[in-house]
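User: Hey, my collaborator sent me this sequence without any context and asked if I could get a structure. I don't really work with proteins. Can you help?
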Amino acid sequence: MMRLLLDDGTRSLRRSLACAALLSLAACADEPAIPEDAIEITEIVRDLLVDPPEWEVERAHPKQDLLAVEVITPALHHRFDGSDMISLVLAPPADVSFVVADADGPTILRARAGVDITAFQYLSEAAPESTFSFEVLVNDELRFQGDVTIARDRRRRAEEVWKLRPRRNGSSWLDVGGEDGLAVEPGDRVTFRTHASAAGIPDSAIVMGFGGLRLERRRYVARTPSSVADPNLVLVVMDTLRTDRLGVYGYERDTSPVLDRMAERGALFENAYATASWTLPSTASILTGLHPEEHGVTDQGNYFLAWQLSTLAEALQRRGFSTAAWSGNPLISKSRNFSQGFEHFGDDLADFRKTGAFFDEVDAWLAERADDRFFLFLQLTEPHEPYDPLASARAKFALEIDEAFDADAVEKRLLQGDRQRDYFARLERLVSEEERRTVDALYDACVWSGDHWLGRLEGSLARLGLDDRTVIVFTSDHGEELFDRGFLGHARSLMGELVRAPLVVAGPGVPAGARIDASISNRLVGPYLAYRGGATLGSEAGVDPLFGERASEPVLFSTEKGDWNGQRGVRIRGMRDGPFVVHFAPTAIEWGGTSPLPDGEVRIYDLGADPGETRDLGDSRPDDARRLREEIARRFGALKPAVEGTDLSVGAGTRNLLDRIGYTGE
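Assistant: No problem. I've predicted the 3D structure and written it out in structure-token form, which is a compact way to encode the shape of the chain:
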């Protein structure tokens, strides 16, 4: 249950903020003239968890730390809006307050109130439910009150519920102030209050508080029209797509006819690389232009794209672009803040969605915004497990394969197998030749399915008369190991099949038929699209980062989920430097060892002589190994977090999701 207690302050503040923002568009009167169908832009004034105010503790539980910043996960099941969120934990009963600073100005307070799912394990027949209450006061006036009640599943004992069925339990976040938030002014005292009726739950076990605490400001800009000179921008990221399974990159099977034609009328990058070998850090890099070590979305940090980071969507929105996105991957979601800068963000909190589940929505949005200059982002998951190709693709590539075949079961079998150096012998023992051929055929069918949806997108643009004034960038977040090194999946290494990424650009202003051989990171896609939109993103301001003059430099990529000498969860740094690829594990342990090597371990490959990266030259070319080790250490050492203070471990919700989709197990 949630009860909002609001006056007219929110709406009047929105009008006053809009008035200030629109001086260049219209003269402000009592009711400011906001352009019809204007774009509402949100600007973060202050993140109250990263840049905390001076908190005043009015009441605190005597046996618990107050003002702790931790991850709260209200639910694991996708039926609840209960994803992980960095939060101010206020053990009940608690009252803390702060005063809005003059420098922050009139703002909107945003917060979400929630209870961590761990509370469920203490429910019992004697105490089958508990209620947790939240209040927010402004100058001692109650402006928000909400209750979260959790109840025991009466069909099982409490410990069985917790151990066996945690996904069925949970609660949702409560939005403080609803959609509008709470309007606050300089000098206002804001108080956060918690209390609980939680019989049977130890005080020390109650984790509740306020997540997403921040002060926002809103302003409005008019939408701008597109033209050949000022084109629309479309970014398609095909999740888990290998470069060498595409016709335009030399694959013999007809998996990508649409992309092949797109490359003929546009530009193709022969040696593009993702920044990571799995989705979250790589996609964050594409949308921010930053390396994972800079944006912080890595396994050792948090899985939340910080509010303070500037994204491509935000940069374009400020230029009057209409913005929308659809994601088929549950990791790329609103709950992890990938939606910042998008007016619409279509996602699913827990499950993979193939493109057919939402393409009609994309089509409708394009028709609605056909007269506007727009930015559309699509994260398509056809090549990602579960392999579920279109019927036409199955008939073309995998006709004889049983539709009940479970590739995920094959991947888990390999993950649970023993560690040994001879991974091909291990592979032959654990996975049959027929299973490998089946996975191979299904993957190709899924690549063709993804290409089909790219064709549908191009068809929609052509039908609306937008094809000659729209730039399309096509890339992937990472590739897929199809038993190349004894595994199925990704994230575990930085080999070429995982970090090489297709990159094709087509549309007005793009050199048709160009083939660019230089090594390049696809993190530059964001800055490039910003450049084409008259905006800036990252350090490449004012220059064309893809087609302009730029200094040749090594390309960096990394993973925190590496597999090295039989050890899992190893941090691996990678670099492409001329013909060489170097992999460096700073904390590497020898096969069968227990202690990290003093200087870590490096492996180098010469792509000119060994394009498949099968022969490590680290021992036979010590001078090259020494130089490349020093260079990769120097370059990664120079990468600094763009936002300080966001390094927290992930919560139960993200761990559960990552485990289900194959990213954990180490």
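In plain terms: Residues 2-222 form a domain with the Jelly Rolls fold (CATH 2.60.120.1060). You can pass these tokens on to your collaborator as they are.
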